[in-house]
Design brief:
The structure is a single chain. This protein is α/β, with parallel strands linked by helices. The protein folds into two domains: about 70-320, Alpha-Beta Barrel (TIM Barrel), CATH 3.20.20.140; about 375-565, no CATH class. Helix content is about 25%, strand content about 25%. The protein contains 16 helices and 30 strands. The strands form six sheets. Strands 1, 2, 3, 4, 5, 14, 15, 16 and 17 form a nine-stranded mixed beta sheet that branches. An eight-stranded mixed beta sheet has the order 19-18-23-22-25-24-26-27. Strands 6-7-8-9-10 form a five-stranded parallel beta sheet. Strand 24 and strand 25 (about 465-470) form a beta hairpin. Helix 3 (about 105-110) packs across helix 4 and helix 11 (about 280-290) packs antiparallel against helix 12 (about 295-300).
Amino acid sequence: MAEKNIEKIINIARGIEKADLVIKNAKIINVLSEEIHDGDIAIADGVIAGIGKGYSGKKEIDLNGAYVSPSFIDGHVHIESSMLLPKEFAKAVVPAGTTTVIIDPHEISNVLGLQGISFMREAVQGLPMDVFMMLPSCVPATPFETSGFDLNSYDLSLLIDKPWVLGIAEMMNFPGVLGLDKNVMAKLKLAESKGKRIDGHAPCLSDKDLCAYIAAGVASDHECTTPDEASEKLRKGMYLMIREGSAARDLEALLPILLEKNTRKCIFVTDDRHPEDLPEHINSMVRTAVTAGVSPIKAIQMASLNTAEYFKIQNLGAVAPGYKADFVVLPDLVSFKPDMVFKSGKLVAQCGKLISDIEENNIPTVRGSVNVKWIKYEDFKIKAESDTVRAIEVIPHQLITKSVTSKIAVVDGFAESNVDSDTLKICVIERHRAGGNIGKGFVKGFNLKSGAMASTVAHDSHNMIVIGTNDSDMYTAAVELIKSQGGKIVVNNGEILAHLPLPVAGLISDEDFDSVVAKSMQLNNAAKSIGCQIDDPFMSMAFLSLPVIPELKITDKGVFDSSKFEFVDIFKPSAIVV
């Protein structure tokens, strides 16, 4: 945005000069006064100079009574989870009304460290969308997995003063906060010394431990899945980030909070979404909330002003004098599908299509990141100590899992998948340093009847994760992903049914939005063809290796009890690995 001419803006606001653009006859959704009122909107140098009656402009657009809302802000998103380059991500979400995102690049940082942050910063230049960043706090998330890098407080201090950095991202290591871990304390103090935000990530944390977590400076949380948990966190002063991702969908469960409590500390976020879920973005959360009975103004507040105020972004998130001219034109307060999207006073999207040109910038190259020690078919075998194991059970639409006891098959002394009991072998293969680690266990909930599926997207360290009914297909899937330097794949009887290569850090495609969506849908259909009953199986699979979320997970180092922060012996369900 060009530097604003204050004198010019003052004269336009007073009606002495013509504005660059005037939006005439609008119903302005005012999130500051919580009312809807008629008026014109005068814009100059990308800023709203004035609202009211009788403004004239060099260019005028008559809305004939359509609604104008501040455009939407996604308060917490990992662009890498879309598997898209940022320019393709923008093509999907800007037409839906999202013109600002606050990203946490901890996915690519776990693979490439500071180079990953640099890559994302360069890749977002020239977009019709503002991209702010929260610096990853947990790379790696825990010491119980192998990550590509370890970012300490010194690494973060190199970037914390940048104007596009708003603070420290989700502090997943809440045991480290409570235990006064020196590295964690250094990161918290860094953010505090700069007056910047610290986002939280603390599923099920409550009572005095929650008080301590908040008192340490952590100001938000996006892991609430029940009204009781959300109420406690609001009561104790946290901002509630209500998440609606592809796998974790918490909005419906938390609607009672939005209907009964003060919503001014509630924010809408998407966290992790696959590409096919992007064209309906924050606007879909607004629509869902309003359909459930939330006031349209309050729903839009949560999608705009609340988020800007939490992150201390001045002059963003409202339609008012002095605010950035980021707004959407809505035909009604039912569909929340914008007819027009304006960014810094320029029309960038219309009728669901991006019309603004995206500058071509040279995306920096990154090194190959799938570095796996030579694997053999035999590496997938598990010596059986029993026909009963402690298995990970997936809970639909949640990141939380259950620890359950289940029957497996035992063949020639080895533990194998039991299709009848839906107990499938799962392996996590270290892929950063060719160290040779392979964590092995069993998972319930995928219902595969044959074949295997694999991915190099496995939060947060992004080692290779493989689930299958037999070792042969699991081996084939893993080898193919090594060849493509990352991706997602479905294999059955040695045949590749679907494959999406992700050559950028093993996380991101270099293809366009339509191509990635098509291949992503092929993957889901292929998974269904071999019996999978989960709506978005690859997203669900990706979180099975995240050891900071209860109850049972698996990393390249083994099966992990996330409630106790200890490894377990799968053949001794009550025993802890020493």
